Amino acid sequence: MNPLMSSASDPRQATTALSVNLNKVALLRNTRTLGIPSVTRAATLALEAGADGITVHPRPDERHIRPHDVFELAELLKQWPAAEFNIEGNPFHNLVDLARQVIARGLPLHQCTFVPDSVDQSTSDHGWRFPDDAERLAPLVAEVKALGVRVSLFMDPLPEAMAAVRALGADRVELYTETFARAHADGRATEVLPAFAATAQAALREGLGVNAGHDLNRDNLADFLRAVPGVQEVSIGHALVGDALELGLPETVRQYLQCVREGSR
Questions:
Q1: pLDDT in tens, 87-100
Q2: Whole-angstrom distance, CA of residue 13 vs CA of residue 33
Q3: Which residues are known catalytic residues?
């Protein structure tokens, strides 16, 4: 567990960690061959501004994060022992192999987030299904945990699925928050937040940690954290990088951290 998250024995009383997703930085870099903008420089700026971790989602088509980014970021994270490195992606594609390679090189990797996206998807759009996905996920969960890496499963807000997640051996769930973000933008957040709160409560009862991510932004983050108990980590990329074009990356990270503080009051 990230030392920045361990100040309270009860996760419901801990401060939510902010993990900055750098996919969109890599996406921009990949439109040229000059290495600009630098993914590792962006990570350094985010960490210097107070981010608690770095997230990447390397896809098989290498549209944004590429394998060398994973290794270079892991090397960078050696200089930030209080920060966490989270790699997310489909464990049936390239995720598990990258995790093996990172650990084999003696580099830090704290969490793998299993996401059920297809090769041609533009972005993640749903969580795992239980019991449908349980049998094929089980050996991969066990393998990654054997590497000493925490496993989080990307899940829709379904309280009834939390027991199955725990039975599978996962450590956390990441709540897929796009439905909340869309509802919040339309002024309907109160319609969907009860399901997220109930799912988080069910996860906590099962002994699972709770993460959240997808379309969280400066407008909705604090409201989400106020309503949903025990969120240990949010990973935010698209909106954060978009805001950074206007505000600069360090100031953007500071403003997201302020949203986290407001949501934790």
A1: 999 999 999 999 99
A2: 46
A3: 57, 88, 214
